[in-house]
Amino acid sequence: VQQLILGVLLGGLYGLAAAGLSLVFGVLRVLNVAHGELIMLGGYLAFGLVTLLGLDPFVALLLVIPLSASLGALLYAGLFRFIVRHGEETRIKNSLLVGFGLALTFQALAVRLFTADERSITTAYRGRALALGGVVVPLGRLLSLLVALLLIALLHAFLRRARWGQAIRATAEDWEAASLLGIDVRRAYGLAFAIGTALAGAAGTLVSLGYSISPSIGLEWTLKALIVIVLAGLGSAFGTFVGGVVLGCAEALSAVVFGGAYREVVGLLLFFCVLVARPQGLFGRS
Amino acid sequence: VTGGGRRVGVGRTVGTAVALALLGLAPLAVTREDWLNLGVVFFLLVALAQSWNVMGGQAGQVNLGHAAFFGLGALATRHLWAGGVTVPIAMAAGVALATVAGIAVGLAAFRLRGAYFAIGTLALAEVLRIAVGNVLPEISTLPAGAIAAYRLSDRYYAAAALAVGTTLAVAWLAASRLGLAMEAIREDETAAEASGVGAFRVKLAAVAVSTGLAGLAGGLFAFYHISYYPQHAFSPTWTFDAVLITFIGGVGTVHGPVLGAALFVFLREYLALRWVDLHLLIFGVLFIAIVLLLPGGLVEATARLRGLARRRRPPLADPAGGTGRA
To answer: Of B102, B48, B68, whose CA–CA distance to B224 is shortest?
Structure first.
């Protein structure tokens, strides 16, 4: 049970990490394999704000989100804007290649700026935990899970209710029809990319709070996010979150059954099987 | 990926192979070990990039798990060699293992298209890498007898032969009926199927050739290194290097990977000497620039320059003078 609780707590972060990637993938139809590196940068940003300015990590989060969104807007204007001009197939391939170049660049940059050491944010309440009938729940991670859930709820509300949220959904559905209806598709793309990056930054903050970050964590988080997307399918923020929690639990269970060394393998195998058997995802529409 | 799919002339292929072969004779004149080691790395990367290019360039299937097949080839070769089997047979076994694994992966993964294929192969390669790291955590070192008999020039000749052989094989494939079918699938899979190309079988053939050649390159890696961690041969950097080189040189062309590997090895050494920790950063930026601005790589760049030069020669043809555009 203890392992399951920890799995749920970690899974919430998987869900948050995947939500940003899922939004970008669903709307722009590009696959940004540097998403994990964006998470990593967000984590370092939060780490810097906390250690240099002495902010509480959850306050730092309020700064990380807009800063990450600006970074996302820049990346869109500088790179991804040129990729979305192409047709579907070329878009995906070029975005994979550019994303891979970006991943390499960000990783090298992070090593240069922050060294290759592992870091994590320490707070006064880091060690504190709630004991519930023999099960220990770390307080910081519990708060992180709640924040992740809150962000997912905000994203959901934005996409359903706000004018630009609806524009983004229309663009995801059919960009040609959306542009005929007078929606500025390019702006919807840019906005979706910025929000996706902001979510990555938020996820990074929570990762550096409850776990640890280093320049090389990017690929791992990208893979986790991709696994979750494949599990959950595209198109629902809450579905993605549930997918993340499912992955977290599956990993926790596999760690109990097969030992810790193979927890990554189980997730990846699960992913490959779902991919081959149901390419549209467990909960997704075909 | 909009690769330059032009048929490569026989002359250019022969020229590339001859140039590689001449470089392969270097140990007759050069005795500096660092140069010869660099040469081995160059040939190894030529072979690896060529093998990726068969599937990624000619058939248009972006395989991000290529390192797995390189690693499998290295693993099998090393194990059999250490067990007393002669090197050529051990390498052949490595090729066989990589090919069988490639076909098995292909059978499952070719149900996926585009992005999902790329992610699926990346995931499988990571599974293998982690599993190998768990099962074989210890460094693999040659037995003392083999170390005593180690001669760098042997490795150099083997690497050169590998690069020449792989390049010729890929050139032959590109000119064959199968190569044409692969290009047809890259350009438009549905249209290719409609014109009678059995896409699934052609893709399986492409994956078999591509992974088999990667396994061969892995075998050379195992033959070359005195000691290495088995997991290292499965590292995603092997995939990334191959992809990078192919793109720098020119996707879907036969001499592109050779040009790309030359520039890649030169730049990597040069940058690593000058800016020790910045060279990866420069690589990343260079790679993005090539994908966005010069999708045909060096091959396209030289073709454009040649077109420019040809146009400039007759003085009346271009009134704009120096600012001619290709």
So the answer is: B48
Cβ–Cβ gap A104/B240 under 8 Å: yes
Pick the residue of B1, B119, B129, B267 with the most A CBs within 10 A to test the interface with A by mutation: B119
ipTM of this complex prediction, to 2 decimal places: 0.75
b/e map A97-120, b = 16+ CB within 10 Å: bbbbbbbbbbbbbbbeebeeeebe
Cα–Cα–Cα angle for A102, A86, B280, rounded to 5 degrees:
15
Question: Are the CB atoms for B61 and B207 separated by under 8 Å?
Answer: yes
Cβ neighbours around A211 below 10 Å, total: 17
Residue B254 CB contacts under 8 Å (≥ 6 apart), including other chains: B8, B12, B13, B16, B50, B167, B170, B171, B174
Residue in A closest to B286 by C-alpha: A101
How far is the alpha carbon of A158 from chain B, nearest alpha carbon, in Å?
Answer: 28
Whether this prediction's pTM lies above 0.90 is answered by: no
Q: State phi, psi for B13 to the nearest 5 degrees.
A: -65, -45
List chain B residues with CB under 8 Å of A276. Answer: 108-109, 111-112, 120
Is A244 within 8 Å of A152 (Cβ atoms)? no
**Residue positions counted in chain A:** 286
Q: Where do the DSSP E strands lie in chain A? A: 129-132, 135-138
The DSSP 8-state label assigned to residue A126 in this structure reads S
CA-closest candidate to residue B261, choices B7, B30, B44, B27: B44
Q: Which of B135, B288, B290, B294 to mutate to test the interface with A (most CBs of A within 10 A)?
A: B288
Terminal alpha carbon distance of chain A? 35
Q: For A51-65, A237-251, B267-281, which range has the lowest pLDDT when averaged over its residues?
A: B267-281
d(CA B284, CA B248) in angstroms, rounded, equals 12
> What does residue A130 show for φ and ψ, rounded to 5 degrees?
-95, 135
pLDDT by position in tens, chain B (length 326) = 334 444 446 667 777 777 777 777 777 777 777 788 888 899 999 999 999 999 888 888 888 889 999 999 999 998 888 888 888 898 999 999 999 999 998 888 887 766 778 888 888 888 888 888 888 877 788 777 777 777 788 888 888 888 899 998 988 888 888 888 888 888 888 888 888 888 888 889 999 999 999 999 999 998 888 888 888 888 888 988 898 888 888 888 888 899 889 988 888 888 777 776 677 788 788 878 887 887 777 787 788 888 877 766 554 444 444 433 33
Nearest residue of A to residue B287, measured between CA atoms:
A101
pLDDT tens sequence across A187-207 = 888 888 899 999 999 998 888
Rounded Cα gap, residues A218 and A34, in angstroms? 7
